[in-house]
Amino acid sequence: MQFPAELGLQADADLRHYNTLGVPARARYLTVVNSTTLLTQALQFAHEANLAVLVLGQGSNTVLTRDFDGLVIHNQLRGVDVIQETDSYVELRVAAGENWHQFVSFAVTKHWYGVENLALIPGLVGAAPIQNIGAYGVEVKDVITAVEYVDRTTLAIQTLSNDACQFAYRDSVFKNALCDATVITAVQIRLNKRAALNLDYPALADQAGKQPSLESVFDAVCRIRTQKLPDPAAIPNAGSFFKNPVVTTEHHQRLKSQFPDLIGFATDDGYKLAAGWLIDQAGWKNKEISGVRVHRQQALVVINPSNRSGADVMALAAAIQQDIVRIYDVQLEVEPRIY
Ligand SMILES: Cc1cc2nc3c(=O)[nH]c(=O)nc-3n(C[C@H](O)[C@H](O)[C@H](O)COP(=O)(O)OP(=O)(O)OC[C@H]3O[C@@H](n4cnc5c(N)ncnc54)[C@H](O)[C@@H]3O)c2cc1C
Fold it and tell me: Could you name the active-site residues (predicted)?
């Protein structure tokens, strides 16, 4: 098989710097693409060479449990374009390789409302719709109008409307019917030009000042997150390792009588429990197995300070899951994608 020179393929590539857990996995091939033409060529090459494909942004929601025997495509498609503008809103086409936080900062400088609560979430724009990133009462589905992607099999460029993306809590069609079937190339986002702040989250309302503004909310989100969450550049981690589980009303009542401090919020399907509280109360904070540890301040975050393997990371996660079933009869679901 002839390697197309323009793909700049790296063989036996080290992926340690392509995942924020710092797992030392390797890829048979790695290519960095900065145009849809190169992306299509890379997919074509993988197809002809019968190679599995893994798309990686910053790898901040990914656990690599083994070397990847295929082609890793690191996405660096860049550009932010205005596609429509009125007195009340602006609609943008943001390329998938843009850094999410830099895009949020840009929107705040332009005085556009809608993504400020999502400041400092690591990763690239192209991954944001995959798990419908969310924080402080806002989810990215609230601002996405459409998602553009290349179909991995037909190589056709497609656009999906917000509705068709089937967004839900940390979920979308890209994790289900279209799982591993697309490469997202751009996200279309509509932002408000008129003041529209979301201060539903009490800690944010407290910190955003007496007369909250777009800038003060953005600053407050950055402050709270910096205090609460370890910076992956300093301590390798993948953010929240487990989703908040939803239990039935009866199950919640049972747990509440046994654990009066239990944190739970009523939802349409029952009660959503705070996974961090369950793990903390089970005594897991700062506990370590094979060099992988639960963060000492934030029980939901698994840290990998010694760059241990993805299998070691998953061994700690499995031990936590078993304990949570034993104590609360609750099954925790891992949030990052496991490969
Ligand atoms: C410290 C920390 C805090 C975090 N806080 C939050 C938070 O508050 N809320 C939240 O929702 N998440 C949070 N996360 C998780 C993470 O930041 C998001 O899920 C982010 O969107 C992942 O982006 P990424 O580029 O790193 O994706 P990656 O980890 O590279 O990829 C994630 C998945 O998407 C796929 N993928 C990536 N790009 C594309 C593409 N262009 N096309 C098709 N598939 C693609 C990958 O194959 C993989 O399956 C946090 C993570 C960390 C480390």
Answer: 170, 240 (proton donor), 335
Q: What is the band of 76 on the pLDDT scale with cuts at 50, 70, 90? A: very high
Question: What are the φ and ψ backbone dihedral angles of 184, each rounded to 5 degrees?
Answer: -70, 130
Identify any residues that bridge with 266 across adjacent strands, giving them in sequence order. Answer: 271
At 2, the pLDDT band (50, 70, 90 cuts) reads low
240 is a catalytic site residue: yes
Compute, in angstroms, the gap from residue 171 CA to the centroid of ligand 1. Answer: 12
Q: What is the pLDDT of residues 261-303, one digit of tens each?
A: 999 999 988 999 999 999 999 999 999 999 999 999 999 999 9
Q: Say how many Å lie between the CA of residue 87 and the centre of ligand 1.
A: 33
Question: CA-to-CA distance for 236 and 131, rounded, in angstroms?
Answer: 20
Range 236-260 average pLDDT: 96
Q: Which of 56, 78, 72 is nearest to 9 (CA)?
A: 72
Residue nearest to atom 1 of ligand 1 (CA): 239
User: Can you tell me the mean pLDDT for 66-77?
Assistant: 97
Question: Domains plus CATH for the chain?
Answer: 5-75 (3.30.43.10), 80-228 (3.30.465.10), 237-338 (3.90.78.10)
Tell me the longest C-alpha to C-alpha distance in the chain: 66
Gap from CA of 205 to ligand 1 centroid (Å): 26
